[in-house]
Specification:
Length: 728
C-alpha cells in the first residue's frame, strides 16, 4: 500500500472555529477527505509550536525524548534520521519522496534540513520552493485590511499568477510524481503545504468567496475571558495578536472590524491550501494508485483566530492544541471519532498498516482500531506541553492545565468549547484530573513540580515552580534534572541555573547544576569560557559567541549551534560533543569513548584516548583519531583525516580527502577510497617501499609491521593515490 502523507501549517480545526466565525464557510476538499476516511474530530498536537510539534509527529517520540520543546536545537540535534519512523518505511522497501514543508524550517522550504538528513531518509531529491525564488512581482498584489504581524502583510494576488504561489507549485510537483512514478516499490510521499501560515496570502478569488459581511465575532465572545494571569502574561511575550484585551466588552468597533478582516484573510489562505489539496487528491484519483494509497492529513497545531485576543499558536488552550487529523485507508468505512487522540499517533498508525513494528520508546499508538470502527476503542489522556507548563484532555472533554507558577485551569470543552469559564476551583473532578495530569506528564518524561512534591523521581525534564515570566521563556520554564530535589520541597524556587554571560568571563557551573543553556540570545559574546563540574553535564549554546568550554569527569553532552570560534575540551568520561553553526570549532575529546560531531565549517576534531566516533559532517575538516580504535567519518568537504593510533575505521564521505596514515603497529581500514582521495604515507618513509596487494575485493598496503586495508577497490587505484612513500 502506498502512503500519501500530507501536512499543512497553522490550521485550526474548521469545525472548531471557522464554521462558527464565517457563515457558510467550507473547505470542500478537506471536508471531502474527512467524509471519505476517518475524521479525528478531537486530535491534538504534542506542543503548540512549529518545530517541536513536527518533531513529535515525525519521530513518534515524546518531546522529553527529543528535547524539542521550542525552536532551539531541533530534533536532529538529538535524534538521528535512522531513529525516526519514516526510516522504518525506507528499510521496509518504500520509495521515499518528500516535497514541501514537513519538518520545521525558516520559511516555506522542504526543511531546510542538512543534506545528510535527506540522503539518509529519502530516495527523491527535495525541491526548494522558497518563495523568494519564484514569487510574482509584489506590485501586482493588493494589501488586504486586517491585522498584520511581523511575519508579513496579508495580500491578495491576481488569479492568473496563482500558479507561482507556494502551495500551487508544491501541488504541481506532487501531481507530476503521481503521473510519472513507475517504480516497483510502494511509495511514501510527503506533501507539506505552507498555508494557512502567515503572511495570509491567496489569489483574489479566495477573498471574493468570503464576503466580509459573512464574518462575525461569536456572540459568546462578548464576555470577559477567565484564566490564569500567569498564562496571559506569558502568552503576550510572543506577540501575535491584535492586543484588544481579554474583555471583549471593551473592544472598539474599529478593533472588531480589524479582527473580522484578519479572520477573512486567514480563511482565504486556508481555502487556497484546500484548493491545492483537491488538486492532489484529483491527481491521485486519476492515477493507477487510486485504490491502493493511504492518505493522512494533519496540521502541526491549531491557531487562535482572535479568541482571547490572540492571533497565534503558543498556548495550551483548545484553539491552539486542537488541529485537523484525517486518515483515509483504501476500502474503509468512513468514521467520525470524537475520542481525543494525539498527532503523535500518526507514525504508529502508518507503520501498523505497513506491517512494521514500532521501535521501543515510541509514544504514539496505532489508531487502527478507530479507523476500523472496533467497538470499545479507547485512548489514554492526550498531553500537550508548552514550555514549562502542561495540559491534558481525556475522554470526558475536560481540559486540565497546570502552569509552572503553580496556577491551574480547567475547562469543560464539551459545554464550553471556547474555554471561557475556568472551573478549576469549582469542579469536583479537578483534584483527580490534576493528579492524572501530573502522572501523564511524568509518564511522558516530564515531572511537573508543585509545592512539596518529591522531585527526586527520575525524569528527563522537570518544570520550574515560581518562575516569573519576565525573561526568555524557554530558560525560565523547564530544566534538565540536577541534584536539586531538596529545593523541590520549598515553594517559589527556580531549578534552572541562570547566568548573565559577559565578555571575557569564566563561568564555573556549581556542583548542584548539571544543565546550562543559552537561549534566545542575539548579542554576540566574545572570549566567554564555561567550566563544567564532574557531574554528567549537558550544555546547550546558541547565539553568537567565542570562547572555550571545559568538561569534567562525567559523561557530558554539548550541543552548540553557536556562531563564532570556540574550543571544547571533553576531558574524562564518555562525551557527546556536537558543534554546528558558522566559524571554525576545535574539539578535544579527551579520555573516554567519545562521539564528536562537527558542523558546517572546517573544524579540527581530536579524539584523544578511547574508542571514539568522530564525524566531520560538512566543511573541510581536520580529524585526528588519537589512541584507541576509532571510527572516523569525513562527511562532505575535502577533509584531512589522521589515522594516528589504534585500529581505525575511516569513511571519507564526499569530497577529495587526504588520509594521513601514521606508524602505529595497528591495522586500519579505509572503507571508501576514491580516485580523488590521497593516502599520505610520509610517516612510513623510513620503512619504504610499501607493498600494495590485491586480496579479493580489497587491497592491503604494508611495510614492515604496518598495514592498511582499503575496501572494495583495486591495487592500481590504491597505488595511484599513495604519496610520501614509494610503492614497490
Amino acid at each position: 500500500m502506498n502512503i500519501l502523507f500530507i501536512a499543512c501549517d497553522d490550521a485550526c480545526h474548521i469545525n472548531g472555529q471557522l464554521k462558527q466565525l464565517i457563515s457558510g464557510f467550507t473547505l470542500p476538499n478537506l471536508e471531502a477527505l474527512m467524509a471519505s476516511g476517518t475524521n479525528f474530530e478531537r486530535a491534538y498536537c504534542a506542543v503548540p509550536i512549529c518545530e517541536p510539534a513536527r518533531a513529535a509527529v515525525m519521530t513518534g517520540l515524546s518531546p522529553a525524548a527529543t528535547k524539542s520543546f521550542d525552536f532551539q536545537g531541533g530534533w536532529k540535534t538529538y535524534i538521528r534520521p535512522e531513529q525516526i519512523w519514516p526510516y522504518r518505511l525506507k528499510e521496509a522497501g518504500y520509495y521515499m519522496v518528500t516535497q514541501g514543508k514537513i519538518f520545521h524550517g525558516g520559511g516555506p522550504r522542504p526543511g531546510p534540513q542538512p543534506q545528510w538528513v535527506y540522503d539518509i531518509l529519502y530516495d527523491d531529491v527535495p525541491y526548494d520552493f522558497h518563495q523568494a525564488q519564484y514569487a510574482p512581482d509584489e506590485s501586482l498584489s493588493t494589501v488586504m485590511p486586517g491585522y498584520s504581524n511581523a511575519v508579513g502583510t496579508p495580500r491578495s494576488w491576481p488569479d492568473e499568477v496563482q500558479n507561482m504561489l507556494y502551495d500551487y507549485r508544491l501541488a504541481d510537483r506532487v501531481i507530476n510524481f503521481l503521473n510519472t512514478y513507475s517504480g516497483s516499490k510502494p511509495f511514501y510521499c510527503e506533501v507539506g503545504f505552507y498555508r494557512p501560515h502567515d503572511p495570509h496570502e491567496a489569489p483574489q478569488w479566495c477573498f471574493d468567496a468570503i464576503p466580509l459581511e459573512n464574518v462575525h465575532i461569536d456572540d459568546v465572545w462578548m464576555q470577559t475571558w477567565e484564566g490564569s494571569a500567569y498564562a496571559d502574561q506569558f502568552v503576550r511575550q510572543f506577540g501575535g495578536g491584535p492586543g484588544n484585551g481579554l474583555d471583549p466588552t471593551q473592544w472598539t468597533e474599529a478593533q472588531k472590524l480589524e479582527l473580522r478582516q484578519a479572520i477573512r484573510n486567514y480563511a482565504a489562505g486556508y481555502m487556497f491550501m484546500d484548493y491545492n489539496l483537491g488538486r492532489v487528491r484529483d491527481a491521485l484519483a486519476a492515477s493507477p494508485f487510486a485504490n491502493d494509497t493511504m492518505i493522512t492529513f494533519y496540521s502541526d497545531h491549531g491557531y487562535h483566530t482572535g479568541s482571547r485576543s490572540r492571533w497565534h499558536k503558543f498556548t495550551l488552550y483548545e484553539q491552539a492544541a486542537r488541529a485537523p487529523l484525517v486518515i483515509s485507508v483504501p476500502g474503509q468505512t468512513p468514521q467520525v471519532v470524537n475520542t481525543p487522540v494525539s498527532h503523535i499517533d500518526l507514525g504508529a498508525t502508518i507503520l501498523d498498516y505497513a506491517g512494521i513494528q514500532v521501535d521501543s520508546g515510541f509514544r504514539g499508538v496505532s489508531l487502527r482500531p478507530f479507523i476500523e470502527g472496533q467497538p470499545g476503542a479507547t485512548h489514554d489522556p492526550v498531553p500537550t506541553f508548552w514550555y514549562g507548563s502542561f495540559s491534558m484532555i481525556d475522554s470526558d472533554m475536560k481540559r486540565t492545565t497546570i502552569y509552572n507558577d503553580g496556577s491551574y485551569e480547567m475547562y469543560d470543552i464539551a459545554n464550553d468549547p471556547w474555554g471561557f469559564d475556568n472551573i478549576a476551583d469549582s469542579d469536583p473532578d479537578f483534584n483527580a484530573k490534576r493528579d492524572l495530569a501530573i502522572e501523564t506528564a511524568y509518564d511522558w518524561g516530564y515531572l511537573l513540580v508543585e509545592n512539596a512534591i518529591d522531585t527526586s523521581r527520575p525524569s528527563l525534564f522537570q518544570s520550574l515552580l515560581g518562575t516569573e515570566p519576565t525573561e526568555v521563556p524557554v530558560s525560565t520554564s523547564f530544566a534538565a534534572l540536577g541534584d536539586l530535589h531538596e529545593l523541590g520541597r520549598n515553594p517559589h524556587y527556580n531549578l534552572m541555573y541562570r547566568h548573565a554571560m559577559t565578555p571575557g568571563e569564566v563561568m564555573r557551573m556549581p556542583a548542584h547544576t548539571r544543565s546550562f543553556r543559552r537561549y534566545g540570545a542575539t548579542t554576540p559574546i566574545s572570549n566567554f569560557s564555561i567550566v563544567a563540574n564532574d557531574e554528567d553535564n549537558e550544555i546547550q549554546m546558541g547565539g553568537s559567541w567565542t570562547g572555550e568550554a571545559y568538561f569534567g569527569a562525567g559523561d557530558d553532552t554539548l550541543t552548540s549551534g553557536a556562531d563564532g570560534q570556540m574550543t571544547v575540551y571533553g576531558m574524562d568520561g564518555n562525551d557527546l560533543l556536537q558543534v554546528t553553526g558558522g566559524s571554525k570549532k576545535i574539539v578535544y575529546g579527551g579520555a573516554g569513548n567519545d562521539t564528536i560531531i562537527g558542523g558546517g565549517t572546517g573544524d579540527e576534531l581530536y579524539g584523544g584516548t578511547g574508542d571514539d566516533d568522530i564525524q566531520g559532517r560538512d566543511g573541510a575538516d581536520t580529524i585526528y583519531g588519537g589512541a584507541g580504535n576509532d571510527t572516523l567519518h569525513g562527511g562532505a568537504g575535502n577533509d584531512i583525516i589522521h589515522l594516528d593510533g589504534g585500529a581505525d575505521t575511516v569513511i571519507g564521505g564526499g569530497g577529495s580527502n587526504t588520509f594521513v596514515v601514521h606508524r602505529k603497529g595497528q591495522v586500519s581500514t579505509i572503507n571508501d577510497l576514491t580516485a580523488s582521495d590521497t593516502i599520505d604515507l610520509s610517516d612510513w618513509s623510513a620503512i619504504q617501499p610499501v607493498a600494495v596487494a590485491q586480496q579479493g575485493n580489497d587491497v592491503v598496503v604494508s611495510a614492515a609491521l604496518e598495514r592498511l586495508i582499503c575496501l572494495n577497490t583495486t591495487a592500481a587505484t590504491v597505488s595511484s593515490r599513495i604519496t610520501g612513500a614509494t610503492v614497490s
